[in-house]
Amino acid sequence: MHVSFYPRQGKQDQDMECSTKAHLVCMAAPAQGHINSMLNLAKVLHSKGFFITFVNTDFVHHRFLKNPESLSSLDGLPDFRFASIPDGISPFNDGDEHRQDIPNYSLAIKNNCPASFLKLLSAMNDPNSGVPVPPVNCVISDCFASFTLNATAKLGIPNVFYCPSSVCGFLDFYYCKELMERGIIPLKSEDDLTNGYLDTVIDRRPGMIEVRMRDLTSFVRTTNREDILLNLIIDETHASHQATAMIFNSFSELESPLLDACSSMLPPVFDVGPMCLLSQYIPNDSAIALFGRLNLWKEDFGCVEWLDEKEPGSVLYVNFGSMANLTSEQLLEFAWGLADSGCAFLWAIRPDLVVGGTALLPQEFSETTKGRSFITSWCPQQRVLSHAAVGGFLTHCGWNSITESISAGVPMICWPFFGDQQINCRYICSVWGIGMEINEDVKREEVARLIEKLMRGQKGKEMKKKAMEWQEKAFEAAKAGGGSWINLERLIKEIITKE
Ligand code: UDP
């Protein structure tokens, strides 16, 4: 087993200069959304004067090496380095299939990464290892990569967990343990999926609103008490009790009762989001301000030029994130719903979006939507959402997508796929008032109807107004001197640099 540092040949003089800085090691969970979020946090912390080592798994690192835009980011800076650890499934390319099996891949990471992370951390702390970095002061670990606890406990290094999900998503996972004890989950039989059981009201979860069973994480829809993902989310969220502190990518105004509930149960809690905005407030003279991004797919900037030609608020943006999958039937229902709505749209269809095959759209669809559609595979999402032409977002409700949408003041149509997306959707629609949900069993008529409502109806206008109010609150939190920066300063003083 090896661990790798990049770039391999350091600029030794600069390394010496940097060696007096406190060193933070940021461990990202191996998924695009988690990496984006952690990278934003790492940039912000770098701007505060820390030496950063950003750690990916070897597999993710090698995917970035294949994308020329991401490749240049990996050069890093003298005091912002990258490293990678094996995930235990090698060789890289032959392991792809295993990695698409999310439950078993997650389990493999949990089992294999404690040893490789320990090796990395030990090498960085060993003055004789030849690794040109200062000793590690603190680990910032994705809370869904709790395998880091093994190494930090052994080496006596503080370990602060970063939750890239919503607080409602975190608590939804956390309370699954209790729901299991109350006998509510897992399901008694497969029939529970269709016999009305999913409409059972779920209450008595401190900090959370009452929801229906169908609003809980999709991982509870199993009859197996030993289900890998269900048990993993319980274990991972409860591991946060062993963290030195918890950071959330959220802001007080948005998730206040949920944050209060976390504060009463967990180690010290700091909300420092939305990270997508905070990272834009890094001072311009900071070397990290112009630092690139890490994308698993190549971004298509042509879609931004296409948007430039469109009327303000006239385009619906459609994107299901980096992991969701559609069946061919679902793809067609969305496609014909978009066509029948008569609305202009920009749709990013990832090469692996459709289960078991390529996303084939009929010729007739292209003809019907000619002149008002732009289809691409991966786009610069934050730029797209901030574009004046974008009036709505049809989303799978990943937390980064939601915070980016809120930050741009764009209302949403929600089609949650899995994980925390169901509960995110409930909060979007019922608490924050900035979205409408599409039925799980998606049908073109409903898609067209909701698009019409969002883009041209009264309800759409109300949601747009609300979205802009949330946008303002997000900016208040993230601007220089705002609540999230104050919390970040507290985190640095009270936890990270505490003697
Ligand atoms: N993203 C992007 N271009 C795309 C699709 C997604 O840059 O075409 C980014 C998006 O801005 C977000 C992340 O990928 O930061 C997706 O994270 P999210 O939490 O929304 O969903 P996930 O992919 O984890 O399901």
TrEMBL record:
Its EC number is 2.4.1.-. SUPFAM superfamilies: UDP-Glycosyltransferase/glycogen phosphorylase. GO terms for molecular function: quercetin 3-O-glucosyltransferase activity; quercetin 7-O-glucosyltransferase activity. It comes from the Eukaryota. Belongs to the UDP-glycosyltransferase family. It comes from Zingiber officinale. This is Glycosyltransferase. InterPro entries: UDP_glucos_trans (IPR002213), UDP_glycos_trans_CS (IPR035595). Keywords: Glycosyltransferase, Transferase.
